Amino acid sequence: MSITEQGDGEPIVLCHGFPGLGFSWRHQMSALAEAGYRVIAPDMRGYGGTDAPSDSRLYDRTHTVADLVGLLDTLGLDRAVFGGHDFGAHLTWDLPTLAPDRVRALIQFSVPRLPRSPIRPSAGFAHMAAKHFIHFHYFQTPGVADAELDANPDEFLAKIFHALGGAGDYLSCWQHPSEGNGYLDVLPAAPPLPWSWLSAEEFDRYVDEFARTGFTGGLNWYRAEDLVWEQTVDTHDLPITVPTAFIAGAQDPVLTMMGRAALATMADLVPGLRSTLVVPGAGHFVQMEAPATVNDAITGFLRDLESPTP
């Protein structure tokens, strides 16, 4: 596992999603280190400098939870505050029930905690794909999306970052049928870089890494969804009682797809929820799009953790 570290103090492990890297937390690293924390940002399994098994079964909860527990063990840490974005949040929502002694608190981004689905994820994806293009379904078949995205990393990354950002229009993908379309066919065009929240140099960092590694490791997180669903049958809906903060962009398509009611539902599933921040104008990559606001929210939450309970 490749990690980036900065600072000293209480450890905070930040887990990125698709298509990300530990570099996705660059704005949080220095701010939290300056605030007195030890910040650890791994390239998650399948990404960047971390091992990327080709077998999607090795991206299930058994392995991904073991990655984070093993990281703490290797660094000699009893527990940490965990933050997760996108698939990183999907994973870290499960940590308090699967590795309860290792989690001090949670800071979750973009993906609310939802009740367990009554149907197998791949069946739900297929049902939606019969009506319109949906990437969850397109990503299920090994080799198909891999070939398309690996051949065009710069085009894909520009399109997906923009479409999911606050100025994008990701849900326009749903206007297209599944039949005969790849992801690049349905994603809207992206404007030239730089953008207000992503420089050309930062973008090139992602392109260079994914051009080197390909996207199969990231896609395997989607292909392991059925296994994760099976493995968490007894734990998914257990209450999350550790102190938790949730942060999302107001323009995040995830919130649009799930509905704002998902935030109220999350409050029922997460009794430990202490704060919810929805950032105006920001999209899915809220930690990169609105770093000052996000960093203030994180440090405020962490300071409250250190305060004695009245």
TrEMBL record:
InterPro entries, sorted: AB_hydrolase_1, AB_hydrolase_fold, Epox_hydrolase-like
Residue ranges annotated for the AB hydrolase-1 domain, each copy included: 11-107
Keyword Oxidoreductase annotated: no
Gene3D superfamilies: alpha/beta hydrolase
KW Hydrolase (keyword) present: yes
One GO MF term attached to the UniProt entry: hydrolase activity
Alphabetical UniProt keywords: Hydrolase
Coiled-coil regions listed in the entry: none
Name of the protein in its database record: Hydrolase
